[in-house]
Design a protein that fits this description.
Number of helices: 21
Organism: Acinetobacter gerneri DSM 14967 = CIP 107464 = MTCC 9824
Shape: globular
Number of domains: 1
Strand content: under 5%
Radius of gyration: 22 Å
CATH topology: Amino acid/polyamine transporter I
Helix content: over 70%
Subcellular location: Membrane
Transmembrane segments: 26-45, 57-78, 90-109, 129-151, 163-190, 210-231, 252-271, 303-323, 343-365, 377-395, 416-440, 446-467
Domain Amino acid permease/ SLC12A: 26-467
Number of strands: 0
InterPro entries: AA-permease/SLC12A_dom, Amino_acid_permease_CS
CATH superfamily: Amino acid/polyamine transporter I
Largest sheet: none
CATH architecture: Up-down Bundle
Distance between the termini: 18 Å
Length: 473
């Protein structure tokens, strides 16, 4: 590799590097916070209704394994080269500068698209409580709140994310524990005389729709695990990355697997498939609300509405953080004007934060134009771009390790090495590629898919035009 610290080159361009203010506790909650969101509270029902309970369990376990492979690759890179540009910087060095540029913009787009959906969804939920207040007023209030948390300081951002995520984690754990008590008949469930146990899981056969839906729902499932890669972005602002990053990756993935699979088992054991699907009638159709209500928890719908709003705001909080760091990184690498790497007194990239907030505007428009269509397509765009970013992480690690060996280094010299090289990056890449292709097969996501391909082509073209005229440094 180059110098001992790959950040040196980057930081010479910037008067002040970003502060290292995050601990393992913050990192784990940041990745859990990024991942536990609408994908779990609202999307899990969709997967069950399409694949059947056993299919959903297989899909989430598969999703977890893919996420784990990608995170192991990311862990190796992030520990060796902790950097807030993360996979954009790695793609730049180990795939090619044009791809690094494209990946950084793509990841920025992922979170910016998601930001719009998070604010809109939270505002629509608030409207169920306050029907007379317009959605856009709530959107502005939430946007202002998240913006101020991000601008203040990295430490305050990490701390706020920790507590917002904790609300979700406690909800999921309570849901699984209470659900299991109901399954075994310790708690009464919807007036049933006997314990429901697990016969619902296979009531319609093991895979009622066959194997294919497991693959078609992979995009929803992978999107549910997206957010875990925030550990890589935060590595540049973490105390002692060599110790904290691998620990956070292992903790986060295992917890997510238990949360997702546990949730699916509880929903499927307690509710017949036709009740676990979503009819897009707001929170009341979330399988979480149904189960809590049947167990007899008062105000279940209000509690879950509060939790889902917290989940959405927490995901927006993480998203704004990640997207602004990507812009900062492009600016530091002189691929955007230097104003974007300008830091506030508290050490946050202020201009990048402001510009990213404007990216949430499509979300604000969705009240006027079909919110369902906009929401579904933005979700598709976010999921697809996320999977492309994951592919770049696997390829970067594959190329990095080959380069490492070529230079005469050994695996033992790495501070953290992804196991089973080259199997892990190759499998991770292949599974992500299959997921991308599955999006093209879904007619409702085709517009988003084509849009993403155009955006990727646009990134390469703009890179070529930008750097044709300028000799690279």
């Amino acid at each position: 590799m180059h110098s001992s610290d790959p950040n040196d080159a980057m930081h010479q361009n910037n008067s002040r590097p970003l502060k290292r203010a995050m601990s393992t506790r913050h990192l784990v909650m940041l990745s859990l916070g990024g991942a536990i969101g609408t994908g779990l509270f609202l999307g899990s029902g969709e997967v069950i209704s399409q694949t059947g309970p056993i299919g959903a369990i297989i899909a989430y376990i598969l999703g977890g394994i893919i996420a784990y492979m990608v995170m192991l690759c990311l862990g190796e890179l992030a520990v060796q080269m902790p950097d807030s540009g993360s996979f954009g910087t790695y793609a730049n060095r180990f795939i090619g500068p044009a791809t690094g540029y494209m990946i950084t913009w793509l990841y920025w787009l992922t979170w910016t698209a998601t930001l719009g959906t998070e604010f809109t969804a939270a505002a629509l939920l608030m409207q169920e409580w306050f029907p007379h207040v317009s959605v856009w007023i709530w959107t502005i209030i939430f946007a202002a709140l998240i913006f101020s948390l991000n601008v203040s300081s990295t430490r305050l951002f990490a701390e706020s994310e920790f507590w917002l995520s904790l609300v979700k984690v406690i909800t999921v754990i309570s849901f699984i524990v209470l659900g299991l008590m109901a399954i075994f008949g310790i708690l009464s469930f919807n007036g049933m005389q006997s314990a429901p146990l697990f016969h619902n899981l296979t009531a319609n056969g093991f895979l009622p729709q066959g194997v294919w839906p497991i693959f078609t729902t992979m995009l929803i499932v992978n999107f549910a695990f997206s957010g875990t890669e925030l550990i890589g972005v935060a590595a540049g602002e973490t105390e002692d990355p060599a110790k904290n990053v691998p620990k956070a990756i292992n903790t986060a993935i295992w917890r997510l697997l238990i949360f997702f699979v546990g949730t699916i088992i509880v929903i499927s054991a307690l509710l017949p498939p036709e009740m676990s699907g979503l009819n897009a009638q707001g929170v009341s159709s979330s399988p979480f609300v149904t189960v809590f209500t049947f167990i007899g928890i008062p105000h279940a719908e209000d509690i879950m509405r509060f939790v889902i709003i917290t989940a959405l705001l927490s995901a927006a909080n993480s998203g704004l953080y990640a997207a602004s760091r990507m812009m900062w990184s492009l600016s530091v690498q002189k691929q955007l004007p230097s104003v974007f790497s300008k830091l506030s007194k508290s050490g946050t990239p202020i201009v990048a934060l402001i510009v990213t907030m404007f990216g949430a505007i499509p979300g604000l428009l969705s009240e006027q134009f079909a919110p369902e269509t906009i929401f579904k397509n933005l979700l598709g765009v976010a999921a697809f771009t996320m999977v492309v970013v994951w592919m770049s992480i696997c390829l970067s690690q594959f190329n990095f390790r080959r380069q490492w060996y070529k230079q005469g280094h050994t695996k033992a010299e790495l501070k953290f090495a992804a196991p089973l090289f080259p199997v892990v990056p190759i499998l991770g890449f292949a599974f992500c590629l299959i997921t991308c292709i599955s999006m093209a097969a879904d007619s409702s996501m085709l517009a988003g898919f084509i849009g993403c391909l155009i955006f990727i082509a646009g990134c390469y073209i703009s890179y070529a035009l930008l750097y044709k005229s300028k000799p690279t440094e």
